[in-house]
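Journal club prep — side note

Before the paper discussion, L.F. wants everyone to see what a predicted structure for a comparable chain looks like in token form. Sequence:
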Amino acid sequence: MKIALVSDLHGNMTAVKALEEDLARRGIDAIWCLGDVVGKGPNSHLTFDWAIRHCAFILRGNWDEGIGLREFKRDGFYYEQLGEARMAALLNFPLEKHVMVSGRWIRLIHGRPVMPRLQYIQDPRDTLLPLLEPDFDLMIYGDCHRQGLRTISGQVANIGSVGNALGIPMVQYAILEGEMGETLAPLDLTYVTLPYDNQAAVAETLAQPGLPDGDAFIVELTTGVYSRKKGSFKKKEEL
């Protein structure tokens, strides 16, 4: 089975459309979404609807929860764009999912709010080990918008961001390929970096002048450098 692992769509439909075309070309069997389908970008309602239509499941990310609970400053833009039904649905997304693929017990989360804080692949080993407890072979997450894989006692993998990738301003996602179930078999995790029309994404953002921190989002789209100012939110969030 070939499964696309996607995360952090963040209202960027230009990136999502490029993703969709790439998935069709690759013959993907299922799409699993690890959260943050809304927030930051200009068209959260469209990326939310796309995820609902195409993904076998969607996990709840920190932006999904924060917007669903109306916890952020200046985010009435998102509340109005999403509407009450989508806002309520954000809070019904599960926080995590556990699956057995090719004999490996896999934990899937977004990152925050399950993680107490944002964590990166290169963080100290002792801070990552609890994410594999009690007996996971592999933990896969999004949240920090940067791809990476690390083997400690088990493996920790980050799949990057579709709509707000950092480091490399391309669509980032991963493909998990294996056999569902407990039988040990080959398990492939392939990282994809997909070029897309970043300037079209900039135009998509400029078409929504009320978007909070839209100027910072444009910088991130074009450079891959995190650009939001701290203190923009009621809750302290880095991404």
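L.F.'s comment for the group: The beta strands are 2-6, 30-33, 57-58, 96-101, 104-109, 138-141, 147-152, 154-159, 171-177, 188-194. Keep this in mind when we get to the figures.
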